[in-house]
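Hi team,

Filling in the usual template for the complex we talked about on Friday. All components are listed, including any nucleic acid strands or ligand strings, so the model treats them as one assembly.

SUBMITTER: L.P.
PURPOSE: interface mapping
COMPONENTS: two
RESIDUES: 1003
SEQUENCES:
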Amino acid sequence: MLTALWLVPVAGGVLVGLLPRRWTRPLGLVTSLVALALAVAVAVLFQGGHSGYQFEEYVPWVRDYSISYHMGIDGISLWLVLLNALLTVIAILAAGDRVGRPRGFIALILMLEGGMAGVFLAADLLLFYFFWEAQLIPAYFLLWQWGESGREAGSVTQGPTPSAAATKFVLYTLVGSLLALVGVIGEYVYGGGGAHTFDLRTLAAHPPSEGIQFGLFFLFALAFAIKVPLFPFHGWLPDAYAVAPVALLVTFAGVMGKTGAYAMLRILIPLLPHPTLWWDWNAVMPVLAVLGIVWGALMALAQRDAKLLVAYSSVSHMGFIVLGIFAFNQQGQQGAVLQMVNHGVLIAALFLLVGWVAARTGTRDRTRMRYLAPGMPVFAGVFLVVTLAGLGLPTLNSFVGEFMTLLGAWQYAPALAVTGCLGLVLAPVYMLRLFQGLMYAGPGEQLPPPGAHGAEAGIVRADVASRELVLLLPLLVLMVLLGLYPYLLTQAMTSLGFPLPVPWR
Amino acid sequence: MITYAAAQPVITYTFQQAGSDLRQIAPIATVTVTLLVAILVDLVLPARRRGSVVAVISVIGLLVALGLAGLLWIQGGGHSAYFGFATGDNLALFFEMLFSVLGILTVIVSNAYVRRRDFLEAEFHVLTLAAVAGMMVLSAATSLVTIFLGLEVLSIALYVACGFARRDTTSQEAAAKYLLIGGFASAFVLYGMALVYGGAGSTRLTDIAQRIGPNDATNPLLILGVLLLGVGFAFKISGVPFHQWTPDVYQGAPLPVTAFMSVGTKAAAFAMIIRVFDYALPGLGAEWQALLALVAAGSMIVGNLLAIVQTSVKRLLAYSSIAQGGYMLVGVLAGGQRGIGAVLFYLFAYMFMNFGAFAMLTVLVTPEGEHDRLEDLHGLADRYPVLGVMMSIFMLSLAGFPPLVGFFGKLLLFIAGVETGWTWLVIIGVLTSVISVAYYLRVVYHVWTPHAEARQVDRAPGPLIAVGVSALLSVALGILPAVVQSAGFVGASPVAGR
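RESULT (copied from the run log):
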């Protein structure tokens, strides 16, 4: 069952790549829908409150090194697997006919889904690493071959070429993840009480000595921090997000960053609970998270390019997730998981909206777009909901996650929570400014005569099509649902594959 | 002063024993017989048909050798033969299988190549067979004498093969360079062997292993001998700082030869290093390990850094192979079943990914010559997407990405390294791997760069089959590494159980 969750997309991707072009879209869509159906089925059959992995699969892989193909799902990974499956469906729909060479694009995006699903499902450290690295290959090709840059793509500045952005992304990520390979080997040699195993459960039960943990923590944390990305390792993100086509960003921004945060919760916290030698790494991470929250928000304020604004807001939001994880209490960590899902839903919607505006106006420069609301009323309404979700309005999803992480952080260190709140203060500023600037006229400004909406950018009066609205609808429903009833997710979170140092009850 | 009692020569060699001895070297004998048959056939047949017939004979002979080695392997491996001069143990068999497969791939690729470039066809295959025979001898040799014999057979065949493009001055240059430097290296090895013999009193590796312990580290003969052997070996695996010949020779030699020697020479040299250092001289471990560790670190750093600035794919892959040799040395340093097993696994993996990459270049060959600049790859993926995907597979596998075989290769080497305390080398290996991704991706970049007038590829089936098989195995062994990995452990067992 769990194998199917990653194998169906990968096999579907290979098939899409091999079959003739006219099969591409139906087959891609069917594959992603099947994967989603499987994920939903797992979620329905999932039993909350049980401890231990569910739907476990275990096959020895390389016996002499006790590497096993061990998959399991628990209250944390379940939701990320669902998110991954849902966003891939949306990405494939969004690719529609906007993306050139759809065969390769859809094939690779399906393989990316498979790789990320594998990361969430692996219960063996090496298997985890295997998928972790493997997801890079489709991501690289997608970013490079389908990236768009320059003014034709609506960018404010010329910006990096797709090839440069993709290479930067890969090299950044690889520095971290290859050092993490040393970490994986180090866990194998020093962890697990000398058992020489990659089994996460055993490794969590017998962590190595604190000095070793200190070293291993660095090796792992760097990889995960780059992937999230955590301040100050976010250098690849603006370039990569700037060139990535919107359809790709739905999963690239929506899910891939979460693999890093998930890995922190799954690897760093349980396997290396006391990484203390010269200093305590556990105290460093939340500080970086808070710095990221503030830095991301400030950078978002400074952007003219709407896509980059959303990209930096993502840095800020991901900071909350890391802060929650390193608050070391139930509220913080459960809030972090909630926030991972929330942010995935939110960022996908935001990028889709920004992409549609850019496609209609031909620019992503927010200072060159105005008065769009009268011409596109439906769009304005949807955009408002997403904006409000983005700035953390209660009853919409982000509020719950951010509130829980801050609550957790307060119990851990009030100073961190207070500083982190700056992010909440700044979010309305940049989000509302984006919304108002695009949609309405400024105070005291003359409203343009009817029929001249957004004349500056030569806008056509083209509201969102119902086809596009269908894409957003599940995301909007989720925003409200998770905002009002987060218990839906948290109820299952107590069933963990193996106990975390912090009891989740 | 070490004194040894004179051995009592007992010369009783029965018919039964002769049969048993021959069984141990059956694969080598098969290749040698094939070689002789090929030469005779070459004399008899009309010139037009020589090439294909000799190629078919070569492939059949190598397949038989592969089968025989496999049969002995299934029977649990052979034993020492000819009074300890050669062996049919699992290590030898592993390498014999590897060289047979490599030989088959080479013949398949070069058949189309030599025809396209109008070379002497039959002679080319005969040289390949000779080199394979030399490599097999080297891997089966358990005496300093036979080791040198194998080394020379292999080298001399390759000297000639490198200069096979007679009207091409770079090929001639490569041959001359390889001959001179190879001669130097052989001399180093020979001198080192003489000194080790002087210190140990025997050329047989088992005797040396028994007689030399850590206490002999004060014996200047042995220290100097180990040093010279190490230098000679480093030449052969193109380890830094003895690597300078590699890019020139790899670039100048005809492509199938480059493909063949980049894998074969390296594998044979590693067989030799494992036998001599890991098996015969563990007593002087501290000495040769210090030397090889420096070579390993240098190879990883220099190889990977210099590869970045290359504009010729052949040179780029030459530097990459220098770096790959550095990774493999980590396994040699770690020793034991896991270390040597990892080296064997890596060599097997390396065969497919590296050979595949070179074989891919042969499809771009035209009668005018080779096209190995990075720009020559433009449009390849546009026009032939399957070839583009396969070339990307080779590069990503060499870079060590899962789910390709290069990932497990590196993983097993690095595990062995960390387990035996070579963590600093592993960290160098990991960091230089990041650098390596930059140039491997550069090749991928050029492959996928569109170009209006993409080159017409040679549609001869041979190279395409070799490329396809290599690509398929690069993926398959990455997903199911256990088959070759456990074979590597079995292969390592004769030299690791100490």
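MY TAKE: The mean pLDDT of chain B is 90. Residues 169-200 of chain B form the longest helix (32 residues).

Thanks, L.
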